[in-house]
Protein: YafY family transcriptional regulator
Organism: Hominenteromicrobium mulieris
Amino acid sequence: MKTDRLIGIITTIQQKGTVTAPYLAEKFGVSRRTINRDIEDICKAGIPLLTKQGAGGGISIMEGFSLDAAVLTRQELSAVLTGLRSLDSVSKAPASDLLAAKLGADTDIPRDMEIDLASFYKNDLAEKIETIRRAVKETRRIVFHYYYAKGEADKLVEPYRVVFRWGDWYVFGFCPAREDFRLYKLRRLWNLNVTDEFFTPREVPPEKEPNRSRTESMTDDYIVTAVYEPAVKYRLVEEYGPASFITREDGKLYTEWGFSTPEDALRWLLSFGVDVQVTAPPEMVKKMRSAIKKMKKRYKT
């Protein structure tokens, strides 16, 4: 705790230029005598602090002595705290305020960016992330029940890290049953537990690393041609970017995209309702017609 306080004192003086002992005592919740001893210890460590009595006086760093490499600027500190606050949104033990106190950061450090990584399911997400991180640290396998396109199944996985990608949280690990590295979305993962089974971490092949772009991580062998209404342009831009379609003379949006499977394409296209018309391949046109007929029967009165 004393080391943390000393770092905080140095950072505070560096940021403010001159501070008083009463100010530091109140800020760090200790007596003025303790602050005086801290100042002596800092000086003994080779950082020259000057104390000036009277009005306008206080404690400062000797002119010409630079601590640029040892402390953070306000802009750097703001960036660090922004990152930590974002992690606080998915953590059961928030750390940003504690670190801010250690670094001597004031409440006036600007909050010019707010990042909420939890969305609307913070409680479940924080619990899962904490459990997975513990399993990674202890190199223990985890088990969970997983829901995916083909159904659901119980999984046994060797966890390597928690990953935030493409707007969602995943656990990246090795699946012994599949003998391969996989990403599992935490929102589809339930009944998570850490087992008593230890594992030896394997070397991750570069092509299996989860830090590749979404387009690099997905196959696009199934090509579908479709025309969208202008009203859904925002969705196309959000998913694939403004260069992913051609605007026709009638204002409609022409696309020729690749999907991993016909099933993935069908789910995506059906989500647009009447705002999309599939033109190729013929197989996908038939699948769309069949799905629409089934929906009509379901809602037939």
